[in-house]
Amino acid sequence: MKLDLVKRFSLWIIFSFFYVSGLEMALQLSIDAQQDPNLLNTVLYTFLFNLLVGHLIVKYEKVWPIFCAMIVGAFGIIGFGYFFTEQLIDYSKELKLALVLSLPFATFVVIELKKLMDKQQAE
Fold first, then answer.
1. Which keywords annotate this record (predicted)?
2. pLDDT tens per residue, range 18-41
3. pTM to 2 decimals?
Protein backbone atom coordinates (compact mmCIF):
# COMPACT_ATOMS: atom_id res chain seq x y z
CA MET A 1 0.00 0.00 0.00
CA LYS A 2 2.75 2.48 0.92
CA LEU A 3 4.77 1.57 -2.16
CA ASP A 4 1.72 2.16 -4.35
CA LEU A 5 1.24 5.59 -2.78
CA VAL A 6 4.91 6.46 -3.31
CA LYS A 7 4.68 5.42 -6.98
CA ARG A 8 1.52 7.47 -7.51
CA PHE A 9 2.97 10.48 -5.73
CA SER A 10 6.17 10.26 -7.80
CA LEU A 11 4.21 10.10 -11.05
CA TRP A 12 2.13 13.10 -10.00
CA ILE A 13 5.27 15.13 -9.31
CA ILE A 14 6.71 14.19 -12.69
CA PHE A 15 3.39 15.09 -14.35
CA SER A 16 3.44 18.45 -12.56
CA PHE A 17 6.65 19.39 -14.38
CA PHE A 18 4.96 18.82 -17.74
CA TYR A 19 1.84 20.57 -16.46
CA VAL A 20 3.74 23.77 -15.67
CA SER A 21 5.39 23.69 -19.10
CA GLY A 22 1.99 23.54 -20.80
CA LEU A 23 0.54 26.07 -18.38
CA GLU A 24 3.30 28.54 -19.20
CA MET A 25 2.36 28.29 -22.87
CA ALA A 26 -1.36 28.65 -22.08
CA LEU A 27 -0.61 31.74 -19.96
CA GLN A 28 1.42 33.32 -22.74
CA LEU A 29 -1.30 32.64 -25.30
CA SER A 30 -3.97 33.92 -22.93
CA ILE A 31 -2.17 37.16 -22.19
CA ASP A 32 -1.18 37.76 -25.82
CA ALA A 33 -4.78 37.22 -26.98
CA GLN A 34 -6.09 40.05 -24.80
CA GLN A 35 -5.85 43.65 -25.87
CA ASP A 36 -5.86 44.78 -22.24
CA PRO A 37 -4.85 41.73 -20.15
CA ASN A 38 -6.51 41.36 -16.76
CA LEU A 39 -6.52 38.72 -14.06
CA LEU A 40 -10.09 37.47 -14.54
CA ASN A 41 -9.80 36.87 -18.28
CA THR A 42 -6.40 35.23 -17.89
CA VAL A 43 -7.75 32.85 -15.24
CA LEU A 44 -10.80 32.05 -17.37
CA TYR A 45 -8.70 31.28 -20.44
CA THR A 46 -6.27 29.11 -18.53
CA PHE A 47 -9.22 27.36 -16.85
CA LEU A 48 -9.95 25.81 -20.26
CA PHE A 49 -6.43 24.37 -20.24
CA ASN A 50 -7.02 23.10 -16.71
CA LEU A 51 -10.21 21.37 -17.86
CA LEU A 52 -8.13 19.44 -20.39
CA VAL A 53 -5.57 18.56 -17.73
CA GLY A 54 -8.40 17.61 -15.34
CA HIS A 55 -9.76 15.28 -18.02
CA LEU A 56 -6.37 13.55 -18.24
CA ILE A 57 -6.16 13.26 -14.47
CA VAL A 58 -9.66 11.73 -14.24
CA LYS A 59 -8.89 9.39 -17.13
CA TYR A 60 -5.67 7.99 -15.70
CA GLU A 61 -6.04 8.45 -11.92
CA LYS A 62 -8.96 6.35 -10.74
CA VAL A 63 -8.33 6.32 -6.97
CA TRP A 64 -7.63 9.93 -5.92
CA PRO A 65 -8.14 12.34 -8.83
CA ILE A 66 -8.85 15.46 -6.74
CA PHE A 67 -5.87 14.82 -4.46
CA CYS A 68 -3.76 14.25 -7.57
CA ALA A 69 -4.91 17.59 -9.00
CA MET A 70 -3.98 19.33 -5.75
CA ILE A 71 -0.50 17.81 -5.78
CA VAL A 72 0.05 18.51 -9.49
CA GLY A 73 -1.16 22.09 -9.11
CA ALA A 74 0.89 22.82 -6.02
CA PHE A 75 4.10 21.13 -7.15
CA GLY A 76 3.72 22.40 -10.70
CA ILE A 77 3.06 26.03 -9.94
CA ILE A 78 4.87 26.52 -6.65
CA GLY A 79 7.58 23.88 -6.91
CA PHE A 80 8.56 23.86 -10.57
CA GLY A 81 7.05 27.15 -11.74
CA TYR A 82 8.41 29.28 -8.93
CA PHE A 83 11.39 27.61 -7.26
CA PHE A 84 13.06 25.16 -9.66
CA THR A 85 12.56 26.54 -13.17
CA GLU A 86 11.34 30.05 -12.26
CA GLN A 87 9.02 29.99 -15.31
CA LEU A 88 6.16 31.62 -13.39
CA ILE A 89 8.20 33.99 -11.22
CA ASP A 90 7.13 37.12 -13.16
CA TYR A 91 3.39 36.59 -12.61
CA SER A 92 1.39 38.02 -9.71
CA LYS A 93 0.72 36.07 -6.53
CA GLU A 94 -3.02 36.38 -7.14
CA LEU A 95 -2.66 34.67 -10.52
CA LYS A 96 -0.54 31.90 -9.02
CA LEU A 97 -3.09 31.34 -6.26
CA ALA A 98 -5.93 31.22 -8.79
CA LEU A 99 -4.00 28.72 -10.90
CA VAL A 100 -3.25 26.48 -7.92
CA LEU A 101 -6.94 26.44 -6.99
CA SER A 102 -8.30 26.11 -10.52
CA LEU A 103 -6.82 22.69 -11.35
CA PRO A 104 -8.59 20.85 -8.48
CA PHE A 105 -11.80 22.73 -9.30
CA ALA A 106 -11.49 21.86 -13.00
CA THR A 107 -10.92 18.22 -12.07
CA PHE A 108 -14.02 18.31 -9.88
CA VAL A 109 -16.02 19.76 -12.79
CA VAL A 110 -14.77 16.99 -15.09
CA ILE A 111 -15.73 14.33 -12.52
CA GLU A 112 -19.22 15.78 -12.16
CA LEU A 113 -19.68 16.03 -15.93
CA LYS A 114 -18.54 12.42 -16.29
CA LYS A 115 -21.07 11.32 -13.65
CA LEU A 116 -23.80 13.26 -15.44
CA MET A 117 -22.91 11.70 -18.79
CA ASP A 118 -22.83 8.20 -17.26
CA LYS A 119 -26.21 8.79 -15.65
CA GLN A 120 -27.72 9.98 -18.92
CA GLN A 121 -26.34 6.95 -20.78
CA ALA A 122 -27.77 4.60 -18.14
CA GLU A 123 -31.27 5.98 -18.60
1. Membrane, Transmembrane, Transmembrane helix
2. 999 999 899 999 989 889 888 899
3. 0.87
